[in-house]
Write a structure and sequence with these properties.
The complex is a heterodimer. Chain A is an alpha/beta fold. Chain A has 14 helices and 14 strands. Helices cover about 40% and strands about 20% of the residues of chain A. Chain B is built from twelve helices and seven strands. In chain B, helix 6 (about 155-170) links the parallel strand 2 and strand 3 (about 175-180). Classes of the chains: A alpha/beta, B alpha/beta.
């Protein structure tokens, strides 16, 4: 199979699920024309009754797919801009997510929310640059941030098949990345992390588009004699704490790279959980966004986002003597 | 006596409507007592005074039709046919409740009857009605949804989104505004500008104002809305003029809110929806229904009190349909 781009992997996963299950249907804004390319050509292949443009009414659309899910359908809802989640927040975290427990298990809401192009993209400014996965995790919503085309393919299929609402964040910086998916992609369950590169001195947890950055950091630091283990949780909620524990048992040191705000971000949760129940040899560090809306000018945007240099600096702090060796 | 009291599918029969309004009234009076006695935790939003709306609308629905409800939802759920015992058990937080004690008054639901839940957020359940009726149509069924909201809901943007969308797609949805005069303490005149009926018509939605104290008039309006929906004529808007005889919730008496006068309450009580129907049926029949209702409510209390309280170890059960266990807080 040819090398496919991340966005094509999402599209292929959607196509394969729509083929496998006639109850899978996709809603969103401009999904028939496929402005975001996740639904590319699907309206032609499956018909407009399964690829459905909604009015620009994100609250209603989010509640609409909940209603369809309650009737046994498996809707996929694309948010053209990830920050539109905020417009629909009640319908996601206060309705869809809570219906199972509030109804004592009567309701199941197998909805998948897809956020293509999540995160900053140089110049989209304050309201189009957020990467809001951590707040969904805090609400207990199943949330994944795949870092590779193969994981994007596998996790979108897992999300669609799941009986609960699942949010799939596709980081903007990864959409053009290519990978050979092979003939068969191994399914990936929710809550399953991945060690992209084993190492001995420090565990670097990286989420989404920070995974390739972390791999570059590991390459650089290997030359300086620091062995970095790159841990990709893939699934933010549920989280693969067991795999992280095993990694830290080996390295004893932790840096978390997380492109959400520092306050109550995913890095905060990871470090808090580690501090409570795992052993570290040195104080952990996190590399996150500043607690601020992304400012417009590209030089300012870069200044508030986590980057390679900040991660290297954090690792040097954490590794201390080992780095100097 | 069948514990199912709902009117769904009973049509215009005044005795069936009377049975439902009487059942809701006696259920709500019982809830009031049990809340005061601390047998029902939290608070409740009583439907007393508004019973004709739920009874009349649900009488025009079929069993497979759908309902989305509000924070003041007991009447809708009962009228759609929920069994009183599991309903009351839910309000009391028992495992034999409709929602196994996980929902309570504001989230009581019976999906087997097409009741997609009461809802603690004003207008929050309305879009479910759109998606559910759309989904049923894709499955080759016409299932009509009645989506209830109050005059306070008229100020919510989500209602506008949903009326617009339902009209665009001609979805079989009946928008039922229960205008009881107040959004908590805010007069309806301060919630909605212009005429809500004219507003609905501007979307191309058939709309009318209805005497919401008279279940037969409610039924007639809902019947024509349901017929229109089933015939592919799209959504309707019914503006029910009604009144709640109690406070917004039971805590209101303690707060001594003074947004309406006792004269006003008395005036509306002259048009009690239970009394209006009672006068239209033969006294002997009425006495029989009253006795049935008393027995059903008594049985419901026994059923609810007999249900076990949930085991605290099960507090996170049902959080996920997939069975995922959430992390504990400690």
């Amino acid at each position: 199979m040819a090398r496919v781009r991340y966005i094509e992997a999402l599209s292929r996963a959607l196509r394969d699920e729509m083929t496998a299950d006639p109850k899978v249907v996709v809603f969103g804004e401009d999904v028939r024309q496929s402005l975001r390319r996740v639904t590319f050509n699907l309206a032609t292949e499956f018909g407009e009754h399964r690829v459905i443009d909604t009015p620009l009414a994100e609250q209603a659309a989010t509640g609409f797919v909940t209603g369809a899910a309650l009737m046994g359908w498996r809707p996929v809802l694309e948010f053209q801009v990830p920050s539109l989640l905020y417009v629909a927040f009640d319908q996601v975290v206060n309705q869809a997510q809570k219906l199972s427990i509030m109804t004592g298990g009567q309701a199941r809401v197998p909805v998948t929310y897809v956020f293509p192009g999540s995160g900053a993209r140089l110049g989209l400014a304050g309201q189009h640059s957020d990467h809001p996965y951590a707040m969904l995790a805090q609400a207990g919503l199943k949330t994944v941030v795949p870092a590779t085309p193969a994981d994007a393919y596998a996790l979108l299929r897992t999300a669609i098949r799941d009986d609960d609402p699942v949010a799939v964040f596709a980081p903007a910086a990864l959409l053009g990345n290519r990978e050979d998916l092979g003939d068969e992609v191994t399914p990936v369950p929710l809550g399953s992390g991945r060690i992209h590169r084993p190492g001995a001195d420090v565990t670097l947890v990286a989420i989404g588009h920070l995974v390739p950055v972390a791999l570059a950091v590991a390459d650089d630091l290997a030359m300086a004699g620091v062995s970095v283990e790159v841990f990709d949780p893939r699934s933010i909620y549920p989280f693969d704490w067991d795999l992280l524990r095993a990694s830290l048992a080996k390295t004893g040191r932790l840096v978390v790279a997380d492109d959400t705000n520092k306050t109550c971000g995913m890095a905060a949760e990871i470090i808090a959980t580690v501090a409570e129940g795992m052993r570290l040899r040195s104080a952990p560090r996190r590399v996150t966004r500043a607690d601020v809306a992304v400012p417009f000018a590209p030089v300012l945007e870069r200044a508030v986002l986590p980057d390679k240099e900040a991660i290297i600096s954090a690792i040097r702090d954490v590794v201390g003597e080992a780095a100097a060796a | 006596m069948n514990a199912q009291q709902g009117t769904a599918g009973t049509g215009a029969d005044p005795s069936a409507l009377y049975r439902t309004v009487r059942t809701i009234r006696r259920f709500e009076e019982t809830v009031e007592e049990l809340t005061a006695a601390n047998e029902i935790p939290g608070t409740v939003h009583l439907y007393i005074g508004e019973e004709a709306v739920a009874a009349g609308v649900c009488a025009a629905l079929e069993r497979d039709d759908l309902v989305t409800s509000t924070h003041r939802g007991h009447g809708h759920v009962i009228a759609k046919g929920a069994a009183l015992g599991p309903m009351l058990a839910e309000l009391m937080g028992r495992t034999n409740g409709l929602n196994r004690g996980r929902g309570g008054s504001m989230h009581v639901a019976d999906l087997s009857l097409g009741v997609l839940g009461a809802n603690g957020i004003v207008a929050g359940g309305i879009p479910f009605a759109l998606g559910a009726t759309w989904a049923a149509a894709q499955d080759g069924q016409t299932r009509v949804a009645a989506t209830f909201f109050g005059d306070g809901g008229l100020a919510q943007g989500l209602l506008h989104e949903c009326m617009n969308w339902a009209a665009l797609w001609r979805l079989p949805v009946i928008f039922v505004c229960e205008d009881n005069g107040y959004a908590v303490s805010l007069p309806a005149s301060a919630s909605a500008a212009g005429s809500p009926v004219e507003r609905a018509r501007s979307y191309g939605i058939a709309a009318q104002e209805v005497d919401g104290m008279d279940a037969e008039q409610v039924y007639a309006a809902a019947r024509s809305a349901a017929d229109r929906a089933r015939a592919g004529g799209g959504p309707s808007y019914l503006h029910m003029k009604t009144y709640r005889f109690r406070g917004h919730h039971l805590g209101e008496a303690v707060l001594k809110l003074a947004y309406r006068t006792s004269d006003e309450i008395s005036r509306w009580q002259q048009r009690d929806p239970v009394a209006i129907l009672a006068e239209r049926i033969e006294p002997g029949q009425r006495a029989g229904i009253d006795a049935d209702v008393e027995a059903a409510v008594k049985a419901a209390i026994e059923h609810a009190r007999g249900g076990p309280l949930p085991d605290p170890l099960t507090a996170t059960d049902y959080a996920y349909a997939s069975g995922l266990r959430p992390r504990k807080g400690t």
